[in-house]
Amino acid sequence: MFSIEHEFEATVITLVDEGPPPLQEDVVIDAFADRVTLRQFDPERRAMVTVTISPAQLRDLAAAIDLPEGVYHLEAPAAKGPSGKPPG
């Protein structure tokens, strides 16, 4: 299960682990324009742990989930002009 909330500065996605135990703590993803943070409570430390990645790293992660073993380099999407088509 997950929820999505659009806040002023970020989109907040919360992933809730469901199913048979052992269950993991919720993961909260804050997507800002320039960074994405993943937060999860660590019961052993009794503290939130945060990982910050760039939007490009998030794009690579999403692509990597469906790819076989290997090394990859994704090209950035081409810039589009006002008509929605690449300039030129």
Describe the structure.
The mean pLDDT is about 90. The protein is extended. It is mainly β and about 90 residues long. The longest helix is centred in the last third of the chain and has 10 residues. It has one helix and five strands; from the N terminus they run E-E-E-E-E-H. Strands 1-2-3-4-5 form a five-stranded antiparallel sheet.
Strand line-up in the sheet with most strands? 1-2-3-4-5
Portion in beta strands: 25-35%
Radius of gyration over alpha carbons? Answer: 17 Å
N-to-C CA distance: 44 Å
Helix content: 10-25%
Concise synopsis of the structure shown:
The chain is mainly β and 88 residues long. The chain is extended. It has a 5-stranded antiparallel β-sheet.
Properties at a glance:
mainly beta; 1 helix; 88 residues; five-stranded antiparallel sheet; single chain; 33% strand
Give the topology, please.
Layout (H helix, E strand, L loop, with lengths): L1 E5 L4 E5 L11 E5 L4 E7 L4 E7 L1 H10 L24
Antiparallel strand pairs: 1-2, 2-3, 3-4, 4-5
